[in-house]
Design brief:
heterodimer, A: Elongation Factor Tu (Ef-tu), domain 3, OB fold (Dihydrolipoamide Acetyltransferase, E2P), 4 domains, ten-stranded mixed sheet, 26 strands, B: alpha/beta, Thrombin, subunit H, Bovine Mitochondrial F1-ATPase, ATP Synthase Beta Chain, Chain D, domain3, nine-stranded mixed sheet, seven-stranded antiparallel sheet, binds adenosine-5'-diphosphate, binds magnesium ion
Chain lengths: ~600, ~475
């Protein structure tokens, strides 16, 4: 496509107004000024085009040229994404560092994928075979866990004319496709996709599997399904980032895409440093072998935050289309929404609440709509999924603010963080009364395999927790001592569930990840304890006696044990102590008898 | 002015509008976004500014000095370059105004190099995660909210609380366990009172830190808008000292509330749609562009550790200034009027306080194996104690259960013995942990659930003495 050239008329922060960009469409990528800063067309009115510049505009002046590309902002997709760290425009930050030093410089161009690296390509189709969009023509073993499937790009079909096995760079032609029109289409390892447009699939299918995160309060109480959506709102310091990092580390997704959107540089540095050391508890493989990072930190230009989220989701869809279950983690969607507000303000659009544009809720809905479990394109009907989980950072911790309240409407699971819990160092500080999930029913089948009673335990535990918080309100006024014994037992069991189940330190070497079978076991033990203890209380045994049993308080530490047998043994111990206590009382009762 | 050294450019006398700190200049040709301008007022005063919005023949200029004398007959010179300052090691020991005029009677600095002050972003891939424990000698910080090199940890305070005393104590006592290295203090005042500045100066002088300090001062009676550039000058110097001269820099920025007020007044002058309580929607990003200049870089020896101080308007932590700060910094130390009222110094309320980087700086091989667990246990026990105290206020102490009474007593002792300490008392970390254990020993052992059995056996006084 021929390049259009315009001229800068005005610069106001990240907003640049240009004239003479003939034929420009909104969403087109542009290069702005002599430095060729990356930008995008956001509005057209007459001969004037408003551009959002993704790099710092200092030093730019009216009269400098603007170059249209005639194409929207694209993601480059192909082998080499895994293990990389990009900025919001898909520039490798490692390469930027090598090229420009430790500080970000403007106008530096680096290709997303490495051009010099060769990949071993193994064809999966033969010359003469008919293929359509989404079909796998061959594979590249990108990392020890990811087989990168090279797909016939969307919109193409025909007959494979030639295909070669061997080592190729992403730009080499690996196959030639003869289209029905007779056109010969060279196929490479690399392909492109406009980030703002969802990639097509064949059909959506029902979700029925949880995304196991290894975090008990999530998996057991407020699970998210593969292909579902979740949001985690909370004031600063309540645990959004750590929870999402835990999911990035331990969830059973095939590919994890972590978008650091407008958050701390040191947090990204921390992930980048520690991730490569971590191993997947299921495969023993390095977790970095399945992860992609996008680090558009808070002091990078605001506008690029907006793009970074779509960049991440597009990469996720691309791996979904290969047949993988992909988890996208966005920390924080509020910073993305603020970027929308920023550009909207500069465009002088009429603001709705708190300065956000009126289309905020539309954008949030569209973003989460890109999650789903689908049959992807291609003849073999592969299934893949994209799960989207986003942090929300409400100003002043106020959940009624626009981004939080809107997000809550569109997500399938909500992990509501609670500053009070965080102050007590109850982590993850997910409030069990304010959180929700819409996935319990579809996921029951998964959990029933470990224990058919799972749903009952879960409901019972939630009921105890709920009852306990009601009783705590009363105890706050009259003191715990004044409550009857059966109610004090509820408080004790709730404490055991809270400390022994809900609290889960990200930094504990065993407890950082809790496999599903262990989650079920712990939950079952706690409910079972409550039943036994209730009978004791009915016999008139004071709760303080139960509490003073060391083995009962040991229930708080079962989570630290790795072996399920050991957990069983410890619980048996507690049960014996409870039985002994009961026998003691019964004997005393008999002695006192008539 | 050192900003303007060797600069020349076209002069315009076509100011068409004055709006607070903003000038609308017409007929301007070739002005650049964010470029440095010099404005000469009718009375001959020179102030500097930058271009905020530029069209083909019109520029909106924001000035950083006094706004009183601004008028339509001001002369505006466009320098064609962004704002830069000269850098050299001669800056150490010097004192400048918020717009970089010498206040110490010495000549204008000459640098080896001039660097722009506004835009500086460390590539996240090049960052070194902070991990070196800084011992401040203050128990509530070292024990429960440890500071590490390259961290940004603010103090959230209120008018009348001893945040300055505490910041000075930190600056005085901070040491990294291990070899002595070159350090410097960069002090940036934004709207604080002269006597507050004097206090810092005297404290720095006492310990010889003054010779290792660079001071950028915008005091209460200085132009408000200058506060926009003051912290950026300070951090540009800090970056030079840290990443060019390998020094460990402690940057103290006080008071960030003064900075945010300046930001708000510009936003109001620009008639922008505010986000919350009149503050602009971009305040998060703007503050991030300051705070995020803290850190360490792979392959470089130096570091910048930042301690911003802010007074929460009305003591309200949900106010946008503390709120957005907390969203950016790596934790916060929160001072409490209640503790102060009870004579506890430093009156840091540990419950809402946090050091996000603590886990990387303490523990096995860094401080002590039990450090994190002890800290978690203190949090939990103190929270229980506070709950009991609230309850006692309603039903009376006598009606508390034994357990509640125990936690109440714990909380009181904890405040008196652990949080409370002298302004000149410098506690080594071992001492801090020892006090912590003595307090935890007041509680039944099986309620120490945040501490591993192993560490209980190693450090609990009961086993220690045996
Ligand atoms: N699961 C967890 N285990 C242990 N500590 C946690 C956990 N979640 C949060 N924390 C603590 O809380 C602090 C703040 O958490 P973070 O996720 O950074 O909060 P946010 O992103 O909401 O501001 C962390 O530095 C850590 O000390
Ligand atoms: Mg966070």
């Amino acid at each position: 496509m021929s390049q259009q050239v315009g001229v800068i008329k005005r610069i106001n922060g990240s907003l640049v107004v240009a004239e003479g960009l003939k034929g420009a469409r909104t969403g087109d990528a542009v290069y702005i000024g002599e430095l060729k800063l990356i930008g995008e067309v956001v509005r057209i009115s007459g001969d004037l085009v408003a551009l959002q510049c993704y790099e710092d505009t200092s030093g730019l002046r009216p009269g400098e040229p603007v170059f249209g590309t005639g194409a929207p902002l694209l993601a480059e997709l192909g082998p080499g994404l895994i293990g990389e760290i990009f900025d919001g425009l898909e520039r490798s930050e490692i390469e930027l560092w090598k090229l420009a030093g430790p500080f970000i410089r403007r106008g530096v161009r680096v290709a997303p994928l490495r051009r010099d690296r060769k990949w071993r390509f193994e064809p999966r189709v033969k010359p003469g075979e008919e293929v359509e969009e989404g079909d796998v023509i061959g594979v590249v073993q990108e990392s020890s866990v990811i087989e990168h499937r090279i797909l016939v790009p969307v919109g193409f079909r025909g007959v494979i004319e030639s295909i070669e096995e061997g080592s190729f760079t992403v730009d080499d032609v690996v196959a030639v496709l003869a289209a029905p029109s007779g056109e010969k289409i060279p196929l490479k390892l690399v392909q492109y996709w406009p980030v703002r447009i969802p990639r097509p699939y064949r059909e959506r299918i029902p979700i029925d599997r949880p995304l196991i995160t290894g975090q008990r309060v999530i998996d057991t109480f407020f699970p998210v399904a593969e292909g579902g959506t979740a949001a985690i709102p909370g004031g600063f310091g309540s645990g959004k980032t750590i929870t999402l990092q835990q999911i990035a580390k331990w969830s059973d997704a095939d590919v994890v895409i972590y978008v650091g959107c407008g958050e701390r540089g040191n947090e990204m540095a921390d992930i980048l440093t520690h991730f490569p050391e971590l191993e997947d508890p299921r495969t023993g493989k390095k977790l970095i072998e399945r992860a992609i990072f996008i680090a558009n930190v808070s002091n990078l230009p605001v506008a690029a935050r907006e793009a970074s989220v779509y960049m991440g989701v597009t990469m996720a869809e691309y791996f979904r289309d290969q047949g993988y279950d992909v988890a996208v983690i966005i920390d924080s969607t509020s910073r993305w929404a603020e970027a929308l507000r920023d550009i909207s303000g500069r465009l002088e659009e009429i603001p709705a609440e708190e300065g956000y544009p009126a289309y905020l809720s539309e954008r949030i809905a569209e973003l989460y709509e890109r999650a789903g479990r689908v049959v992807v394109l291609g003849k073999d009907r592969r299934v893949g999924s994209v799960t989207i989980m986003g942090a929300v950072s409400p100003p002043g911790g106020d959940f009624s603010e626009p981004v939080t309240s809107t997000t809550m409407r569109f997500v399938g699971a909500l992990w509501a963080l609670d500053t009070e819990l965080a102050y007590r160092r109850h982590f993850p500080a997910i409030n069990w009364l304010r959180s929700f999930t819409r996935y319990v029913d579809v996921l029951e089948g998964f959990w029933a395999r470990f224990d058919p009673q799972w749903k009952t335990y879960r409901e019972r535990a939630l009921a105890i927790l709920e009852e306990a918080s009601r009783l705590e309100e009363i105890a706050r006024v009259i003191g715990e001592k004044a409550l009857p014994n059966d109610q004090r037992l509820i408080l004790l069991t709730a404490e055991i569930i809270r400390e022994g189940f809900l609290v889960q330190s990200a930094y504990h070497k065993v407890d950082t990840f809790c496999p599903p079978e262990k989650q079920v076991k712990l939950l079952k033990i706690m409910i079972n304890f409550h039943e036994i203890a209730s009978e004791l209380v009915k016999l008139g045994i004071p709760v303080d006696r139960i509490r003073s049993l060391r083995s009962v308080m040991e229930l708080l530490r079962l989570k630290e044990k790795e072996s399920l047998e050991e957990i069983d043994a410890l619980y048996e111990h507690a049960k014996e102590d409870l039985m002994r206590l009961r026998a003691e009382y019964e004997a005393a009762g008999v002695a006192r008898g008539p | 002015m050192s900003f303007l050294r060797e600069k020349a450019g076209p002069i315009y006398r076509t100011v068409r509008e004055v709006r607070g700190p903003l000038l609308v200049v017409e007929g301007v040709k070739g002005a650049r976004y964010n470029e440095l301008v010099e404005v000469k007022l009718a009375d001959g005063t020179e102030i500097i500014g930058t271009v905020l919005d530029v069209s083909e023949d019109r520029a909106v200029v924001q000035v950083f000095g006094q706004t009183e004398g601004l008028s339509l007959d001001s002369a505006v010179r466009f320098t064609g370059d962004v704002m830069k300052i000269p850098l050299s090691d001669d800056l150490i020991g010097r004192i400048f105004s918020g717009s970089f005029r010498p206040l110490d009677g010495l000549p204008e600095p000459i640098g080896y190099e001039r660097r722009e002050i506004f835009v500086s972003v460390i590539n996240p891939a090049a960052r070194e995660p902070p991990s070196e424990f800084i011992q401040t000698g203050i128990s509530v910080i070292d024990g429960m909210n440890s500071l590490v090199r390259g961290q940004k940890l603010p103090i959230f305070s209120e008018a009348g609380l001893p945040h300055n005393v505490m910041a000075a104590q930190i600056a005085r006592q901070s040491t990294v366990l291990g070899p002595e290295e070159e350090f410097a203090v960069v002090f940036c005042a934004m709207g604080i009172k002269y006597e507050e500045y004097e206090y810092f100066r005297r404290e720095f002088e006492k310990t010889g830190a003054l010779d290792r300090a660079v001071m950028i001062l915008n005091l209460a009676n200085d132009p408000i808008i200058e506060r926009i550039i003051a912290p950026r000058i300070a951090l540009t110097i800090a970056e030079y000292l840290a990443f060019d001269l390998d020094m460990h820099v402690l940057a103290i920025l006080t008071d960030m509330t003064g900075y945010c007020e300046a930001l708000r007044s510009i936003s109001i002058a620009r008639e922008e749609v505010p986000a919350r309580r009149g503050y602009p929607g971009y305040m998060y990003s703007d503050l991030a562009s300051i705070y995020e200049r803290t850190g360490k870089i792979k392959g470089k020896k130096g570091s910048i550790t930042t301690m911003p101080i802010l007074t929460m308007p009305g003591g309200d932590i949900t106010h946008p200034i503390p709120d957005l700060t907390g969203y950016i910094t790596e934790g916060q130390l929160i001072l409490s009027r209640e503790l102060h009222g009870r004579g506890i110094y430093p009156p840091v309320n540990p419950l809402p306080s946090l050091s996000r980087l603590m886990k990387d700086g303490v523990g096995p091989g860094r401080t002590r194996d039990d450090h994190i667990e002890v800290s978690n246990q203190l949090y939990m026990a103190y929270a229980e104690g506070i709950k009991a105290r609230d309850l006692a206020r309603i039903i009376g102490e006598l009606s508390l259960s034994d357990r509640e009474k125990r936690y109440l007593r714990f909380a009181e002792e904890f405040e008196r013995k652990f949080i409370n300490q002298g302004v000149y008392e410098n506690r080594p970390i071992e001492k801090t942990l020892e006090i912590a254990w003595d307090l935890l020993a007041m509680l039944p052992e099986d309620e120490l659930v945040r501490i591993s059995e192993e560490n209980i056996r190693r450090y609990h006084p009961r086993y220690r003495s045996a």
